[in-house]
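PROTEIN DATA CARD
Card holder: Serine/threonine-protein phosphatase
Chain length: 347
Origin: Nocardioides cavernaquae
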Amino acid sequence: MTSLTTLRRRGQSLTLLALAAFTVLCAAVLIGRPDLVPITVFILPLFFASHYLGPRHLPWFIVLLLTVMVLCVIERQRGDWRTVAGVAVVFFLAFVVLQSSFRRSRLGVSGPRGESMLVDLRDRIQSQGMLPPLPPAWYAETALRSAGGTPFAGDFVVASRRDARLDLVVVDVSGKGEDAGARSLLLSGAFSGLLGALPPAEFLPAANDYLLRQEWEEGFATAIHFSLDLNGGEFEIRTAGHPPAVQLEAGSGRWRVHPSDGGPVLGVIDQADYPAVSGRMRPGDAVLLYTDGLVETKSRDIGLGIDKLQGQGERLLRHGFDDGAARLIDRLGSQNDDRALLLVHRR
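Structure generated from the sequence above:
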């Protein structure tokens, strides 16, 4: 670990030296051919520095760059309006870069490095929500869509399988899109660990306690927990302020809305109770778990949205359940809200 840190520091020092040499080269060209090269040529090293230097080295480089630029102006002995405007532009951009560097100083890495770390964190945590392998008699699929198509969303799914017990949780964090993305990343990792370590009846109370300990101003979330026995098809559903699950009963061909009289939303009330609703999936049955972004819009309440979900489900799933979640989520909900859908089918 120490050698890796040393290599990174040496890399930053070499980058700083290379950019300083580039700045001196720009100054030499500017002084040698003032008629061809404008003073704004210093924007080039400033741009590269903002991307490849960390917040520890970047301020010193900007001081060097501005000093070299001022010396070039004095050497050229030109004070026309173009030169003055160019100097003002470079100073303004340097101020913007410095402000960005101060915001990144808490992270301690350069811009691209920080972005890659965030993307890697997102990918690693989201991989915990991937559905585990299921027996041939079962099929499950998830589909997620974020508000505005951003890669971060407030809706997520976590899954765990222990022998013949499959646990699936769909969570809707307060807020949407990038605003809820950071909380969603944190909760998905924590909920994945809780789901794999606790009995089904203890998961939502533990998730509620975890959220309460965070003491966030907007630290609430809704969730639905589906615990399924893969041998017999018996299941339990527990909800925390979440829309109800719907089940397609193959025998009658009708959709059944399971009661959603569960507990309160997560992160609001201490020691909340989350009662279970029991049922059974027979061959041909399917269960849909979803977030409110799929069934609720500004012009339609959640009851009408659930009715539309059943109608679209009957029409689309009639042709097969493969890719059924993706086909349903593309037909329903608002593009301006996060949406998550989980489909479980017993073949």
